[in-house]
Design goal:
By secondary structure, the chain is of the alpha+beta class. The chain has one domain. It is built from 3 helices and 2 strands. A two-stranded antiparallel sheet has the order 1-2. The longest helix has 18 residues, at 59-76. It is elongated. Keywords: DNA-binding. One of its GO terms (molecular function) is DNA binding. It holds the Pfam family MazE_antitoxin.
Length: 77
Amino acid sequence: MTTISTKGQLVIPAEIRAQLGIEPGTKIAVTVEGSKIVLQPVKQLIEELHGITKGGPSMADELIAERREDERRWQER
């Protein structure tokens, strides 16, 4: 258990910080799920989301194709 300071700050217990690899400077995502406040290290969040779009269309490939089409149309004028 921890207490919120007058500045809205809280201390994450050392055991939890060690378990999750939270060090000074670690970014923490803060979200609300129902009536719960969820704190999640950003590195952990990125790892969970990594590959979520794997196999989907490449935004870079789509952008390159759009630019080539734009160039083709421009040259036809």
